[in-house]
């Protein structure tokens, strides 16, 4: 994977963003991959889609959010506003090709916000969105609603909490500034203007982002179809999950 860097300055925070841009000969379609919270561009799903895209002569671009992976910045001060600016920068590197944006978990929220931003500014919109276990508005729809009082107090007093992860040894950290910034990016508390076709894949055994949120997202946005995997969990990274994602992607392209 060949890593490149580009400079972005937003919200008073200059930083270099690491990205991977693969353009096979004869590419007529592009994929922009947006990772989940604390995830990076060489994750299992992103790598599997990249390998498939190269075989199918499809352009693909992916990047590490600031504060994560090979990108500069402090995770403690990063937020959706910064990551949206970075997503817009990376999206603009795709030249004159229909684009499918694939957003995983929090990346699905970012994909929707990016599409909304493009539509409001009359820029070229994606051909379609593919949202995997979409964690739309998860800060307010899930996190704040589930936190016990002691952790809510810690978040307010110390500005950060750490929650054990079933996938990693290190706990997930959530910062008060991230949650406060996320308020302005919420989508489910007002009507949507997005007209891009949306496809959702959600595991019915997802305990991190429950299937009910996926159903709520599907009902909120126009021109949306929802597929569920009855034994699928949040990461959707098993061989059968990856194959389901690729089959869905093939159908979107055709």
TrEMBL record:
Keyword flag Hydrolase: yes
Pfam families, per database record: Hydrolase_4
Key words, A-Z: Hydrolase
Domain of life: Bacteria
GO molecular function, one term: hydrolase activity
Domain Serine aminopeptidase S33: from-to ranges: 31-188
UniProt-recorded name of the protein: Alpha/beta hydrolase
Keyword Flavoprotein: no
């Amino acid at each position: 994977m060949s890593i490149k860097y580009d400079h972005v300055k937003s919200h008073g925070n200059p930083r270099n963003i690491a990205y991977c841009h693969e353009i096979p000969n004869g590419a007529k379609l592009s994929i922009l991959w947006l990772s989940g919270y604390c995830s990076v561009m060489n994750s299992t799903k992103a790598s599997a889609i990249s390998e498939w895209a190269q075989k199918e002569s499809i352009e693909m671009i992916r990047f590490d959010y600031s504060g994560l992976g090979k990108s500069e910045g402090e995770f403690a001060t990063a937020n959706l506003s910064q990551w949206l600016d970075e997503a817009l920068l990376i999206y603009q590197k795709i030249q004159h090709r229909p684009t499918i944006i694939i957003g995983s978990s929090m990346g699905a929220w970012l994909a929707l916000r990016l599409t909304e931003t493009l539509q409001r500014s009359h820029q070229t919109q994606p051909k379609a969105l593919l949202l995997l276990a979409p964690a739309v508005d998860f800060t307010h729809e899930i996190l704040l609603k589930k936190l016990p009082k002691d952790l809510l107090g810690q978040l307010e007093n110390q500005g950060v909490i750490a929650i054990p992860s079933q996938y990693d040894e290190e706990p997930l950290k959530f910062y008060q500034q991230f949650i406060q910034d996320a308020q302005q990016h919420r989508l489910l508390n007002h009507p949507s203007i997005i007209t891009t076709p949306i496809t959702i894949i959600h595991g019915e055994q997802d305990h991190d982002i429950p299937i009910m949120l996926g159903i709520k997202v599907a009902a909120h946005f126009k021109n949306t179809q929802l597929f569920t995997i009855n034994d699928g969990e949040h990461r959707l990274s098993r061989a059968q999950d990856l194959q389901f994602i690729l089959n869905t992607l093939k159908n979107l392209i055709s």
